[in-house]
Amino acid sequence: MNPFTGGCHFDAGCRKYRDECGSCPKLGSSEENDLSRQVWQRRQIAYGGMSSTQLQLVAPCLWVAEEVRRSSLLGGFPVTVIPYSVDVEAFAPRDRVFARNALGIPQEARVLVFAALNVSERRKGFSLLVEALTGLREDPNLFLLVVGGHAAVEQIGIPCRPLGYVSSERLLSIVFSAADLCVVPTLQETGPLIVIESLACGTPVVGFPAGDMPEMVRAGDTGLLVPSGDSAALREGIRTMLARPDRLAEMRIKCRHVAVGEYSLEIMARRHISLYEMMLERNQN
């Protein structure tokens, strides 16, 4: 969201960017003419020097596109949605027995994976996952993999392996392939690559409807979405998904199909080329 705010990357529901920022809650400020207002004003001058035909915006999902249209800075410019993509050869299903052996996970475990660059960032919802897991401690054979930095896993109450930051795409594909479910309880998001990476590895997703999650996580096909911020609903979503291993097996196939058919690098490149061609044709007329 940064290009159309007074500086924040995610507004956490503030919505002041729809006017002219100021009194920024991220800054803990009560001043109308604070840094966020000043940044907003500088951007207003910069964008104000362009006509609507001089700037074409690309958003990674419908939610961002709608926020752009509502913004006071960029609302007058055209915006096109082109989703993020991943290398679907690097992110591909790996043998589950091998993946679990490589990570030291019991073969009979029911494995969840959570991944974020910074696990402790509130927006990513790890604390909500921990709340959800408190009601699943009696469920047999649960195991949690955590990818990312700053993971506090002491109070989770189920077997857990923090893997830290993982930069290798091959290793990440092994992590996703070892899991039964990828849990994405993010509260605000543009387009979490982690979801596409999981789908490409054939792993269904359960989480909240943030950003482009509703576009990627399709009930009964690629996963399940529950009401945002509701840890109890997240718990039941996890339990419901894990209760049907036969259904999960079917969904793994659909996850891979959706990732390859809609979120490959080649498809994203073609969408950008089509946009450039449309812009050239528009400017020539």
Short description:
This protein has 285 residues and is of the alpha/beta class. The chain has ten helices and eight strands.
Structure report:
- The chain has 285 residues and is an alpha/beta fold.
- It is built from ten helices and eight strands.
- A six-stranded parallel sheet has the order 5-4-3-6-7-8, sandwiched between helices.
- Helix 3 packs across helix 5, helix 4 packs across helix 8 (231-242) and helix 6 crosses helix 9 (245-262).
- The longest helix is centred in the C-terminal third of the chain and has 20 residues, at 265-284.
- The radius of gyration is 21 Å and the shape is globular.
- The chain starts with 34 loop residues before the first helix and ends with a helix.
- 37% of the residues are buried.
Largest sheet: 6 strands, parallel
Q: Name the structural class.
A: alpha/beta
Alpha plus pi helix count: 10
- β-sheet strand percentage: 5-15%
Nearest-integer average pLDDT? 92
Q: Which stretches are poorly predicted, pLDDT < 50 over at least 5 residues?
A: none
| Sequence of secondary-structure elements | HEHEHEHEEHEHEHEHHH
The coarse overall form would be globular
Radius of gyration: 21 Å
For the secondary structure, the number of strands is: 8
Give the helix proportion (percent range). Answer: 25-40%
Distance between the termini: 32 Å
Spatial sequence of strands, sheet with the most strands: 5-4-3-6-7-8
